[in-house]
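>> received
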Amino acid sequence: MARDSCLARVTAGVAVGGAIGGAVGAVYGTYEAVRYKVPGLMKIRYIGQTTIGSAAIFGLFLGAGSLIHCGKSY
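>> returned
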């Protein structure tokens, strides 16, 4: 395998972005669910939606950034 293939870099970027985005989304979703007094089990759904959405968006952008950076050699 090459020293560090482009696919491996992009995959790592998506994974790290998803993990960071998920953590931030969980914290933010919990804060908003408590702040806006979301009732009962809807809190779980709201926190889950915020977590998945944040993880997907941040993972997408970090993966795209890794792909753009992949072609550059310094």
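>> The radius of gyration is 16 Å.
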